[in-house]
Specification:
Chains A, B: This is Nicotinate-nucleotide--dimethylbenzimidazole phosphoribosyltransferase. Two copies of one chain form a homodimer. By secondary structure, chain A is of the alpha/beta class. Helix content of chain A is about 50%, strand content about 10%. The first copy, chain A, contains 14 helices and six strands. A six-stranded parallel sheet of chain A has the order 3-2-1-4-5-6, sandwiched between helices. In chain A, strand 5, helix 11 and strand 6 form a beta-alpha-beta unit. In chain A, helix 5 packs across helix 9. The radius of gyration of chain A is 20 Å and the shape is globular. Chains A and B meet through helix 3, helix 4 and helix 13 of A and helix 3, helix 4 and helix 13 of B.
Chain lengths: ~350, ~350
């Protein structure tokens, strides 16, 4: 991101007919958008393009989720048919919906809005050893980069991350542990709904995954891109790898990317470890109910825009943030200055 | 609001292809919308209609704001010309903008989107005695009720409150003190920006206003509509009275009304004291940076939707909440059920 347009944006904000600073977090968003685009005022981040990366998880066999694994494929069908919450929210904010199969454990029939980029039929069980080979992780990462480029080529001016993968909050917790150095109990959540016993078991599975892959709980974070890639392959999911690539692709295209919830937060930690500058292109769409999400956002230095106790995934929280991001940019284009409007400035 | 459609909405939420409760606060919003409309699914709250009630305040003479009083009229001109932040946000969310002069201390030339409903050229100084006569307060209240009806008649399906009035956070603090029984220091804020000395002075002016009008600081709250109207006239503003009426008008029309910030929160306390059922038609658009706003919302039992440290007023926070409210309603119309989509439900 470029500092010059950011300084210019900050100065412009202070000339507009509003008390200085009175748009709170949205002033920071507008400044960030100027830095991302390298120009002030920043272009409107419209239209938005959502990519839902879908994949399955070998760790599902450990009983970490009350949902059957088949729901991943069933929800992909729901997305392509337009019947999921993500579709309704995308319609609300004028975003396109693209579903990317990077690792669903089933053969999916071709469907509108579905991109077939399957790297594997799900990951291996991370609690027993590496979830992916490094080649698989790299292939999924590359798929994410390519999808970002394709969506921008198709006219998308703001990317939004989405995910679908039963058991993916378990892999997210393991990634957040590894990339922030926080203990498992502090970053593991109840996902889409587990009872107390399953929750304790889930924390233990995260710990087992770290141990099985030579990662010290609450230890040192990955040092450099090679180690980051190794950890991603060890305890991540194919959709985490793809979303990390999606973030890198957005940064390469100089387009903002709104992160959804805890899965995107975990993936952004990977992206940041691979290319720290990429985080400057990220906006945190919301804070989910998962405790690991707040940890990831704090580590990334990102402030969430929406905080409505959502815990659905799919990109729903990211989509809801889009009108806020767009409104922040619109202020830079449409609002009069004190001089132009003949409004007196504050007298101190 | 009707309990039957609310129960039906809650049950429908649990059949949709999403984990139960995973839409957090938005599930409550959808349920509330069903109760407001008296039908499930609730109609989409689209389009939104913003009314910015503008008025001046005699207490400005006490030096509670760094802004000259003329800024109220200047900002009205900015709204009617389309150059304010509220205009930009309204364009973003597809809302109409109507400006209502209920008490600006100047003669305003006719302008598009401007309704002339002036009750007085500003209020009297609340720190010296009653800000309004009861007749003035009632006239402003009636103007708000009428504007609500007119906007609904013109097709508005979700009302949004807005305000403009230099020094109106002082009157808001006094109203919040009186209607919640909290001390002045806990509900008075820095408004659009005052320094430490002015802030202390502002608290003292609020206290003086309560004393001058026979209201005990941290004492009993108004008992019944007559006393509520007396307190409104004593320490409120003409825009507070009008917004209280606007809330009553929305309730009468069975249309949701999104409250903006601290001025709307103070006005809603008045509306709730006049007609407690009216609060069921209110949604709290955001939580502003003003401390009194959180106090007012807690007293009303309302959860804010947006929390971005905004402190601008004009309806900006309410407008930003509109896509969230609309998205909540849209879920009830467009999302598939587990049965219809062939998605397996959670296995516990």
């Amino acid at each position: 991101v470029e500092p010059g347009p950011m300084t210019e944006a900050r100065a412009h904000q202070d000339r507009l007919t509003k008390p200085s600073g009175s748009l709170g977090v949205l002033e920071d968003v507008a400044v960030r958008l100027a830095g991302i685009a390298g120009t002030c005022p920043p272009p409107l981040p419209v239209p938005a393009a959502l990519a839902i990366f879908a994949a399955d998880h070998g760790v599902h066999a450990q009983g970490v989720s009350p949902w059957p694994q088949e729901v991943t494929a069933q929800m992909v069908a729901n997305f392509t048919a337009g019947g999921a919450v993500a579709n309704a929210f995308a319609a609300e904010v004028g975003a396109s919906v693209t579903v990317v199969d990077v690792g669903v454990a089933a053969d999916l029939p071709p469907a509108p809005r579905l991109l077939a980029r399957k790297v594997a039929y799900g990951t291996a069980d991370l609690s027993q050893g590496p979830a992916m080979t490094q080649e698989q992780a790299t292939a999924a990462l590359t798929a994410g980069i390519e999808v970002a480029r394709e969506l921008v080529d198709a006219g998308g001016r703001c990317l939004v991350t989405g995910d679908m993968g039963i058991a993916n909050t378990t892999a997210s917790a393991a990634l957040i542990c590894a990339f922030t150095g926080r203990p498992a109990a502090g970053v593991t959540g109840r996902g889409t709904g587990v009872d107390d016993a399953t929750y304790e078991h889930k924390i233990e599975i995260v710990r087992r995954g770290l141990r099985a892959n030579g990662i010290t709980e609450a230890g040192a974070v990955p040092d450099g891109p090679d180690e980051a890639l190794r950890v991603l392959a060890a305890v991540g999911g194919l959709e985490h790898a793809a979303i990390a690539g999606f973030v890198l692709g957005a940064a390469a295209a100089r387009v903002p990317v709104i992160l959804d919830g805890v899965i995107a937060g975990a993936a952004a930690l990977v992206a940041g470890a691979l290319a720290p500058d990429a985080i400057g292109y990220c906006l945190a769409g919301h804070r989910s109910a998962e405790p690991g999400h707040a940890v990831a956002l704090a580590h990334l230095g990102l402030d969430p825009l929406v905080d409505l106790r959502l815990r659905l995934g799919e990109g729903t929280g990211g989509l809801l943030a889009h009108p806020l991001v767009s409104a922040a940019a619109r202020v830079m284009h449409e609002v009069a200055t004190f001089d132009s409007a003949g409004v007196a400035d504050k007298g101190d």
